[in-house]
Design brief:
GMP Synthetase, Chain A, domain 3; 3-stranded mixed sheet; 30% strand
Length: 82
């Protein structure tokens, strides 16, 4: 799953100096979540996460077969030190 999401979005978000670290499905409170975890060689500020999320949301909307029957798309950054 990570590989497919990386193929779809990494080229579009590389100018933000972020990349897909992981992509996986989880379940929280009865909802299926599609999680995309972003990482960078530097600290990722909120503005960069927001811009990357806009780009990724558009790409994932165009490739909804990847998402399947999920309820929510969650895009967030990896905490430094993990």
């Amino acid at each position: 799953m990570k590989e497919r999401v990386s193929e779809l979005v990494n080229e579009s978000i590389k100018e933000l100096n972020v990349f897909v670290e992981d992509a996986f499905i989880s379940e929280e409170e009865g909802k299926k979540l599609f999680n995309i975890v972003l990482d960078s060689d530097e600290v990722i500020d909120l503005n960069r996460i927001t811009e990357a999320s806009r780009i990724i949301n558009k790409i994932m909307d165009e490739n909804e077969e990847v998402l399947g029957d999920i309820d929510e798309l969650d895009i967030y950054s990896k905490s430094k030190g993990e």
